[in-house]
Design brief:
Strand order of the largest sheet: 3-4-2-5-1-6-7-8
Order of helices and strands: EHEHHHEEHEHEHHEHEHHHHH
CATH topology of the largest domain: Rossmann fold
Bound molecules: adenosine-5'-triphosphate, magnesium ion
Distance between the termini: 43 Å
CATH superfamily of the largest domain: P-loop containing nucleotide triphosphate hydrolases
CATH architecture of the largest domain: 3-Layer(aba) Sandwich
Shape: globular
Radius of gyration: 20 Å
Number of strands: 8
Strand content: 15-25%
């Protein structure tokens, strides 16, 4: 499943949302996911998640693809593992990605990973953002709790008013007047009917970003009481359900819980003998 993340304006928190969601989803499905940085103006996946200058990414992919050398094995050389649960592809610096390269890349990602998250440039006019949004299974639009920002999104229905759009209201605070109900009301008036998920404002996120340890936020708060984590879980569950992945994972876990996975080989051996 390909999830694209975008926003009508810079600085809404789309990269942090992409990272936290990716880590959370990976843990839920028990497999690594990949984050691809297609926001070459910020390169902030690399900034937040990589501690070396040598980061593998879209330029390596482009070179291999153009020279006809791209194989599943070679693909690994374009990817950097930043933890057990997340691989990243840094954004392109040298090459321009066209529509067909993006299409091929998304197909490749879909054949290797259960979940690929693409962080795109925040803009209502960026061609790559539009291409990726159109080709993804789910598009997350990230806004803040500001009527002005929400209006910017509503003014671009050709990008955002699509069936696979989910709205994330990031840095959400209950004490701010313009709340989820108002946002839903404005969306309805503009003919939008997407699901809306708040993610709370949390000072610990800022601290972890400043310390270059953003992965710790999800890892350290998994079993805690933070409302942000409960909200992230609700968003992740909705996405997995929409993609039909959650029911499969749930079934596997249920079997595991009642020990069927352990018992199956014994039963098989028994029936083979008899
Ligand atoms: N839920 C949150 N609570 C508090 N701070 C947050 C939250 N989400 C993001 N931030 C802070 O907002 C800042 C910007 O976040 P981020 O880099 O994700 O924005 P962005 O939308 O990707 O920006 P750009 O458009 O420049 O790429 C970060 O310093 C981060 O700490
Ligand atoms: Mg960003």
């Amino acid at each position: 499943m390909i999830i694209s993340v975008t926003a009508p304006r810079k600085g809404m928190g789309q990269t942090i949302t992409a990272i936290n969601l990716s880590l959370f989803l990976s843990k839920m499905i028990g497999e690594a996911s990949i984050i691809i940085d297609m926001n070459r103006y910020c390169r902030d996946i690399e900034y937040y998640l990589s501690n070396t200058d040598i980061t593998k990414g879209l330029d390596d992919y482009y070179s291999l693809s153009e020279s006809g050398l791209l194989t599943a094995e070679n693909f690994k050389t374009c990817v950097k593992k930043v933890c057990d649960n997340i691989d990243i592809m840094a954004s392109n610096e040298c090459f321009e990605l066209g529509s067909s390269e993006i299409e091929n890349l998304l197909t490749q990602i879909g054949s290797i990973y259960k979940i690929g998250i693409i962080d795109t440039a925040s803009s209502n006019t960026n061609a790559i953002t539009r291409t990726v949004a159109g080709k993804s299974h789910i598009m997350l639009a990230v806004v803040n709790q500001s009527r002005n920002i929400v209006q910017q999104m509503l003014k671009a229905p050709e990008i955002y008013n699509v069936k696979h759009m989910i709205l994330v209201v990031n840095r959400y605070r209950k004490d701010v007047g313009y709340d989820i109900r108002d946002i839903k009301y404005d969306m309805q008036n503009a003919g939008f009917d997407a699901e809306v998920f708040p993610l709370n404002y949390d000072i610990d996120i800022i601290n972890e970003c400043n310390d270059h340890s953003i992965l710790n936020y999800v890892l350290n708060n998994e079993s805690g009481q933070k409302e942000y984590m409960a909200q992230l879980k609700a968003l992740a569950e909705y996405i997995l359900e929409a993609a039909g992945i959650r029911s499969a994972v749930r079934k596997e876990n249920e079997y595991r819980n009642i020990g069927i996975l352990k018992v199956l080989p014994i039963l098989n051996a028994y029936f083979q003998k008899s």
